[in-house]
Amino acid sequence: MGRPCSPAPPHPAPTGAVPRRIVGGSRRVLAGARRRLHHKVVAAGEHSARQLWPAFPHAIRLDHPPTAELRPRYGSGRPPHAKLLQLLQQGEPRYRSHLQAFSAYHDDLAGMALTGGSSPEPCWLHPWLIGLDTVSLYAFTRLRRPARYVEVGSGQSTKVVARARADGQLATTITSVDPAPRAAIDQLCDRVVRRALEQANLAECFGQLQAGDMVFFDGSHRVLPNSDCVAFFLDVLPALAPGVLVGIHDVYLPEDYPHGFVELWWSEQYLLAALLLGGAPWIEVELPAFYASGRPELAALLAPLFDRPPLQAVNRRGSVFWVQTR
Q1: What is the Cα–Cα distance from 262 to 267, expressed in whole angstroms?
Q2: What does the alpha-carbon distance between residue 91 and residue 74 come to, in Å, rounded to a whole number?
Q3: Rounded to whole angstroms, how far apart are CA atoms 320 and 285?
């Protein structure tokens, strides 16, 4: 059906003038054209992003360059952050104590397969949890015997904790919060929440945790409006009961994100760094895996495990940053 005809203006327009109705209509047409052009540009940009980098299809559009020089600010050939370095150095006796305690499980850890594919069993050679990450997650589970373990982001971490639960004959319940895990791990869990953390019922997921329980956070790594990182650092972490051990994955403090991660625009470790530098009294650093695995005297405590012939190909470093609430 066609639009009804507009009535003629009551008076003719003065010579050289443009009727107000026509001016207004032209503006609306121009605004509509601009919107359509914008949508086309956006669509073309996102389409190009999908074509050039299919694994990362979502483009972030900024009104100015994010930095004048895209590079790590700390580490990667430059000094680490001085105050964070000093802060982490103070905890070395505690890190040493943990690594020494982990040695009780070296034989069990050495029994894990090198590769696993789609197996529900954990393995060593994959891109998600490298050496000390796997060791610390397994050993802390065995040592603490948590009644509850909640993870945000599931896959290899789920397999490691399930293996620790079985080896230690633990009564630990495993809760997975992840809209789409990379591995089929539902059968290993007691509860699955297939929603993003920012959409989940946080009280139901974390409200029952008590001293001795564990949380593992491996989310999007990006602090953006209503992202999972915002929900975790602002809503979950400050509300946890004292005595909960929390592992935050892919944290490289006191250095910056490495070169290979800079263009991914990860940002959550800056929020964690701000908490540490601000002296947040309700968290205590237990084991910063990247820092500890880079200190020769601490890394040597893992040599009895990783020097075994089957495990010599394993990357011994780590990036889980373990803190405990208090």
Answers
A1: 9
A2: 20
A3: 11
Residue 77 lies in a domain: no
CA torsion sign, 305 to 311 to 312 to 318?
Answer: negative
Residues 182 and 316 in one domain: yes
φ, ψ for residue 223 (rounded to 5)?
Answer: -90, 100
**Is residue 288 helix, strand or coil?**
strand
Which CATH number goes with the domain that contains 288? 3.40.50.20
* Residue 179: cis peptide before it, omega within 30 degrees of 0: no
Query: Angle at the Cα of 244 (from 239 to 245), degrees rounded to 5?
Result: 125
Q: Is the per-residue pLDDT at 25 higher than 50? A: yes
pLDDT, mean over the chain: 88
Residues 226, 139 share a domain: yes
**Sign of torsion over alpha carbons 317, 271, 268, 49:** negative
In a domain, 9, yes or no: no
Q: What is the pLDDT of residues 131-142, one digit of tens each?
A: 999 999 999 999
Q: Say whether pLDDT at 56 is over 90.
A: no
Predicted local distance difference test score (pLDDT) of residue 20: 45
Residue type (1 letter), 50? R
Q: Is 303 exposed, middle or buried (0-12, 13-18, 19+ CB in 10 A)?
A: exposed
Q: Which of 1-15, 37-51, 280-294 has the lowest mean pLDDT?
A: 1-15
